[in-house]
Amino acid sequence: MSFQRVSSPVVSSALLTLGMVATVGGALGFEHIGGYIPCALCLLQRDPYYYGIPVALAALASALFGGPAWLTRTLLAIAGIMMLVGAGMGVYHAGVEWGFWEGPATCATTAQGVTQNAGDLLADLNSKHGPSCTEASFRFLGLSFAGWNVIASLILAAIAFSGVRSARA
């Protein structure tokens, strides 16, 4: 199998889409299954994935169904730029965690458990805030979730830009 075949726009778009879904799905899994409550910056880092997945799917559809090469290239480039933005957000958040710079003021509170009283639920939702952005809730191999997001985002950006190069007319 040649490198040109592996780096085709269809393969790049499919890998990009699957990688984005797996990354944000993993974050949601850590939140809802693992019980890790995300801070405000953690939630913001998901936005490039939420917006990028439909763009990557559109690139995949364009590549699969014979759309113009310029359209596939443009969609892959947009998704790649979104992943670079996501990497930048992750670098910022990791820097906040390591104390290199100040985080936003909205990240200074800690979360409490949600009430069990249904009558207090609305008031409870309005009074609860995510954990502080300055403390990593989990580290693996020395990297927090923010650090791993940087790595995932850069890999996904490289896949997207590889697809841009291979989607020539």
Automatic annotation (TrEMBL):
Pfam families: DsbB. InterPro entries: DiS_bond_form_DsbB/BdbC, DsbB-like_sf, Uncharacterised_DsbB. It comes from Shinella oryzae. The keyword Cell membrane does not apply. It comes from the Bacteria. Keywords: Membrane, Transmembrane, Transmembrane helix. The chain crosses the membrane at residues 48-67, 74-94, 145-164. It is found in: Membrane. This is Disulfide bond formation protein B. The keyword Transmembrane applies. It is a multi-pass membrane protein.
